[in-house]
Design brief:
Number of domains: 2
Strand content: 15-25%
CATH topology of the largest domain: UDP-N-acetylmuramoyl-L-alanine:D-glutamate ligase
CATH class of the largest domain: Alpha Beta
Distance between the termini: 74 Å
CATH superfamily of the largest domain: Ribokinase
Radius of gyration: 27 Å
Largest sheet: 10 strands, mixed
Structural class: alpha/beta
Oligomer: single chain
């Protein structure tokens, strides 16, 4: 029976370890796991409902492999068996408990982290051990060392596992399965978010199958992103084009007798950076037919951004006024973009089928969706058209509280993000727009919890079907000095870039430069590590430039990645 039950768990490769908070949640939880492709779970016997939960799940799903965890003595073994548990798991090795389980035919998986414990467990006839706590005990490196003298043992590592390291554990042929709560977190169970748990289970099973070389060909409707993109394809951006007015230097609005003028817009900034990297770009927007718009479009053309798909109409072009902060005084922005040409666009004006004819990528931001109901509808139409043609879609959440409320942002962006392949955000966007927050993070004080952002990315992928997530991480020491880094989550692993201490010339467009760095890297087929480092370096350099376009070359970005950054004159 032992090998039968444990081998069946190993066939899946993933073992949820759950503390069931209340009895009424037990059966719906088990149903969600099963729908997600997981037919086994360990229920920890750490509260008064655990044994009844085992009993109810076994009654509802007789074929489900339900085990009891945190078994500390023979009395608990008896209670678990009576409740219907098919295996028992313990945090440590107790010879008496092991002998009793062997006597009654109960599969027993004790926790072991030392060679002595493993030797004693093997001597008692056990062949499957729990490696707990796995990550703090050395992770896969330790398992590889233990495998040498204990080559007949197989392991179920738990403790510190998640989508970021699941593949690396399951790639070891002596790992039977991986345990944890990452596919059924406590808050999801408490709030009965069964669909999200189901989605997380499907992802975990997919990672397990990929690690073991059993992944079947994906159906055409759910193909992985086609990276790198075919040559000759353009990156299309849809968004607003603005006139930007800025007082000279660090003057306040009240001090300014003159203003510097340039042209900007989140999507335009991204395309300018991509054009500087040598990619073909095309900008879709709507502007009034007047000399100011002509100047703005000339600025785009100067930087090799395509403008053939620009629409003309309306009376106003948007305006943004920016007062640059310094030291402890923050920057300040004033928008004047009500009733602009783009805000009043009619969705039927835009022929997305024609626009996407030679496109290899589509990018938009939450700013564009926030401008009006019409622009939000255009974003939705564009996403549907791009998805129908198999064109990858990226979106920067870019929450702006001066443009819309959190409630409306969540409603509108919740629909749009479901079409997105690559989602981009800063350290607070996911919280404001999607309601997904990093634990132990305070953006006001500059406190950032990296592990929390990995979990944010996992939740975004699980809830919305997003494939990849990029998050910029800014620790703001003052308006003049920041520590800049980024994270990239590729659907299974989170990579963090090096940290850059930056003295800021102009921070506007830094997030857009990060988005462009990600898009370029994915467009070119970089691996996850190179992607996050390229995007971080590109956006770091942007902070050294006046105005909003990141006019740096691929060579300059690579130089910084490879250890440059001293600022010495290049001769």
């Amino acid at each position: 029976m032992e090998l039968d039950v444990l081998d069946r768990i190993g066939a899946c490769g993933v073992l949820p370890v759950i503390k069931v908070p209340s009895l009424e949640k037990a059966v719906p939880l088990a149903a969600a796991l099963r729908r997600g492709g997981i037919n086994a779970l360990e229920i920890t016997v750490r509260n008064e409902v655990a044994l009844d939960a085992i009993r109810e799940i076994r009654r509802s799903f007789p074929d489900m492999l339900v085990g009891a965890g945190t078994i500390l003595n023979t009395g608990l073994v008896e209670q678990a068996k009576e409740a219907g548990a098919l295996f028992c798991v313990a945090p440590g090795f107790n010879p008496e408990t092991a002998a009793y389980c062997r006597q009654i035919g109960m599969p027993f998986v004790p926790g072991c982290t030392t060679a002595s414990e493993m030797e004693n467990a093997a001597a008692s006839g056990l062949r499957v051990l729990k490696f707990f706590p796995a990550e703090s005990s050395g992770g896969t490196a330790a398992l590889k060392l233990f495998h040498g003298p204990f080559s007949k043992l197989r392991f179920i590592p738990t403790g510190g596992l998640g989508f970021h390291n699941l593949h690396s554990y399951l790639s070891l042929d002596y790992v039977l399965a991986c345990g944890g709560s990452f596919m059924a977190k406590a808050d999801l169970i408490q709030n009965e978010r069964w669909e999200e748990i189901e989605a997380l289970c499907r992802r975990a099973v997919a990672v397990a199958e990929a690690a073991r070389g059993k992944t079947p060909p994906a159906p055409a409707v759910d193909r992985a992103l086609p990276f790198p993109c075919p040559p000759g394809k353009k990156i299309v951006g849809f968004g607003d084009l603005l006139v930007s007015f800025n007082p000279e230097g660090y003057r306040r609005f009240l001090q300014a007798d003159t203003m510097r003028v340039n042209y900007t817009g989140a999507e335009a900034n991204v395309l300018a950076s991509l054009s500087s990297f040598g990619l073909e770009t095309e900008f879709v927007t709507r502007v009034p037919d007047n000399p100011i718009s002509a100047c703005a479009l000339a600025s785009l053309s100067k930087h090799r951004i395509g403008t053939d798909r620009v629409l003309f109409g309306g009376e106003r072009i948007g305006v943004i006024y920016t007062e640059r902060g310094a030291a402890q005084r923050p920057s300040r922005v004033v928008y004047d973009r009500m009733h602009t040409a783009l805000c009043e666009i009619r969705p039927e004006e835009v022929d997305w089928d024609t626009i996407f004819r030679d496109a290899g990528w589509f990018h938009f931001t939450g700013i564009t969706a926030a401008l009006s109901d019409e622009t939000a509808r255009c974003c939705l139409d564009a996403c549907r058209a791009a998805k129908a043609k198999g064109i990858p879609i990226s979106c920067d959440l870019n929450y702006r509280k001066k443009l819309w409320s959190e409630e409306k942002a969540r409603r509108v962006m919740g629909d749009l993000v479901r079409y997105v392949d690559v989602l981009i955000a800063n350290e607070e966007d996911a919280d404001k727009v999607l309601g997904i927050r990093s634990k132990d993070t305070d953006v006001e004080t500059g406190k950032l919890n990296r592990e929390g952002y990995r979990e944010v990315a996992e939740q975004i992928c699980a809830r919305y079907g997003v494939k990849k997530v990029g998050i910029s991480l800014r620790q703001s020491l003052s308006a003049s000095d920041n520590i800049w880094s980024t994270m990239f989550y590729d659907g299974s692993e989170a990579c963090f870039s090096r940290e850059y201490p930056i003295h800021i010339v102009n921070r506007v467009g830094g997030g857009d430069a990060f988005a462009a760095g990600l898009i370029y890297s994915l467009f070119r087929g970089f691996d996850a590590r190179k992607t996050v480092e390229f995007a971080a370096a590109a956006s770091c350099l942007k902070h050294s430039l006046e105005e909003d376009f990141n006019l740096v070359s691929v060579e300059e970005v690579l130089s910084l990645m490879e250890g440059g950054g001293s600022g010495r004159v290049q001769r």
